[in-house]
Amino acid sequence: MRTINNWCLVAATGDIFHDVFGYPYAEPNGPNLSVAGELEENGKGLRTSSVRSYENSIITTYSGSKYLLGQVRQDYVEWCRKNGYHIPTNEQPVKDKFFVKGD
Fold first, then answer.
1. Rounded distance, CA 76 to CA 70, Å?
2. Closest CA to 2 of 63, 55, 70
């Protein structure tokens, strides 16, 4: 399973808050979220398809791909804190409002 480090949540559509990896940061409890970050194996940037579920630091996308969440991007954590949003962690990247915990 591939690991995504230096990750943040980005909106598939919606308002642009901050440009990262060419994608806007997204509130960590909104709909239609993807993960943007760097693949641990080679450091290349990646943006997943929309996330369907998560469990034990593993996200599953609607396309069926599974990724292990590594270290969260620290400026994304600060952005969330500054805006009063849920502070994302590997174990709970979002509030359970839109993602489904487990498959």
1. 14
2. 70
What is the count of structural domains for the chain? 1
Residue 70 · residue 40 · CB < 8 Å: yes
Is 25 domain-assigned? yes
The string of pLDDT tens digits covering residues 25-67 is 777 776 678 899 999 999 898 888 888 888 888 999 889 999 9
In a domain, 96, yes or no: no
Q: Is 15 domain-assigned? A: yes
Give a yes or no: residue 39 inside a domain. Answer: yes
Interval 66-102: pLDDT, tens: 999 999 999 999 988 888 888 888 777 776 544 544 4
Residue 18 to residue 12: CA distance in whole angstroms: 14
User: In terms of pTM, does the model score above 0.90?
Assistant: no
Distance CA 89, CA 72 (A): 7
